[in-house]
Amino acid sequence: MTVIALYDFDGLTEGDLTFKKGDKMRVLQQNGDWWNAELLPSGRSGFIPSNYVAQTNSLETEEWFFSDVNRIEAERLLLSPGNTIGSFLVRECQSSKDSYSLSIRDHEPSHGDIVKHYKIRSNSSGAYFISSRITFDSLQSLTEHYQHSDGLCHRLIRSCNTKRPGQLWQKDAWEISRDSLLMKKPIHNNRTKVAVKTMKPGTMSSEAFLSEANIMKTLQHPRLVRLFAVVSSEPICIITEYMENGSLLDFLRSTEASCLQLNKFIDMSAQVAEGMEFLEKKKFVHRDLRAANILVNDQIMCKIADFGLARVINDNEYKAQEGAKFPVRWTAPEAINFSSFTVKSDVWSFGVLISEIFTFGRIPYPGMTHPELIRKIEFGYRMPQPENVPSDIYALMLECWHEYPETRPTFEHLKNVLEDFYTATEAQYQPSF
Q1: Does the annotation count 288 as an active-site position?
Q2: 103: which of 27, 74, 282, 306 fits an S-S bond (Cβ 3.0–4.6 Å)?
Q3: Which among 61, 63, 149, 70 is positioned nearest to 117, based on CA atoms?
């Protein structure tokens, strides 16, 4: 297979192959994230990051083509910072095989910026069209035409802005030395910007931590913060991908969040549910799901952090003992009373997290002490509907807080319902083509 470089790459180690955008390479072996390749025509060979290249003569080489992106993800991308009216992308249509969709950022005076979608069809001759009145021999010709002509909601101005993909973590660099990190502004080996979380000495044993971390590094999903490496000597550190906007809690309390529309809060809830759905299917329990443990990048995409750490902490934080430190306001009653942490206790926590999202990071159950809250919940009390939470969303929160854990919804159900809510808010002003 021959590939073309989409970005410049400077080798991280002696065995890596340095290349420039536009260089062509022949792939010799595909092995995980790093491929062995030969630079053409020089013949130099080495390892290359697979997310920096695309197969030659494929749509992946076009800046406006986004593979494996659904309708909701297209809207997230186009409405993220850095894009403007007329930004667009082409994606594979998931509802119809061998067809595509064109998504464009537009503006409605009554609703603000929105995304409109057009189905791209093909006829028996293989020509592409949005309107059958005019056809094109390629998707490239179609997008070029609408960059210079009206006929859609807005002329296509520029490809959807997407930042350069994160540089893949160095091969075989799992347990790293503390000396390889610049701690004031965390950077690994003077090259890769990272986030570093340092655990207090004595909070966990190195053996238990490494055992859990080895499981955590296999859990990779777009809605989970990527775990890169660890420093296993005291104080233990975990090194993860860098998220520009910090925790969701801090972001919700920022000026930027105060300007967001309702559908964005629904979308953030759906993103977290999507990540939890993945953990649910892996039978993995988070145990500390709250806005403080969700991180946000510069495109306002949410990712779940700190999954797996709770069960290796040694300070009884998650034991319902006198004076324990567990996060009462987010914890399910069966976890408080019997230390029973399951996916269903995570669902309870998710209901509380939704309240945080819609109230701009307000502390749950304001004005109540922990003993008072525990006692009242045992007798059936539930958080009243916060002022900014729509009735349909509050009904979903109450489902999460059902007395019987087995009756609470799955994260798959929660994700689907929230995505339906999100689509419904957009559909009020979407064109039909």
Answers
A1: yes
A2: 74
A3: 70
Q: Does domain 2-60 have CATH number 2.30.30.40?
A: yes
Per-residue CA distances from 190 to 15, 16, 172, 179 (Å): 18, 17, 17, 11
90 is written with which tokens? Answer: 């082409």
Bin 141: left if φ > 0, else alpha if -120 < ψ < 50, else beta: alpha
- Residue 24 burial (10 A CB sphere; 0-12, 13-18, 19+): middle
Q: What is the pLDDT of residue 323?
A: 45
What CATH fold (topology level) applies to the domain 248-427?
Transferase(Phosphotransferase); domain 1 (1.10.510)
C-alpha 64/C-alpha 281 separation (Å) is 33
Which of these is catalytic: 23, 106, 288, 346? 288
Would you say residue 322 has pLDDT above 60? no
Among the listed ranges 46-60, 106-120, 170-184, 333-347, which one has the minimum average pLDDT value? 170-184
Give yes or no for residue 180 having a pLDDT over 80.
no
Q: Where are the domains of the chain?
A: 2-60, 62-159, 178-241, 248-427
Considering the entire predicted model, what is its pTM?
0.81
- Burial class, 366, CB count within 10 angstroms (exposed 0-12 / middle 13-18 / buried 19+): exposed
The tokens describing 406, both together, are 């087995």
- Number of Cβ within a 10 Å radius of residue 190: 7
Assigned architecture for domain 62-159: 2-Layer Sandwich (3.30)
The pLDDT, as a whole number, for residue 182 is 61
The CA-based dihedral angle spanning residues 31, 33, 34, 39, taken in that order and rounded to the nearest 10 degrees: 100
For residue 406, what is the DSSP state?
G
SS3 category, 224: strand
Which tokens sit at 353? 């997290």
pLDDT above 90 as % of the chain? 54
Q: Which fold has domain 178-241?
A: Phosphorylase Kinase; domain 1 (3.30.200)
Question: What average pLDDT score do residues 290-298 get?
Answer: 94
Predicted pLDDT at 307? 80
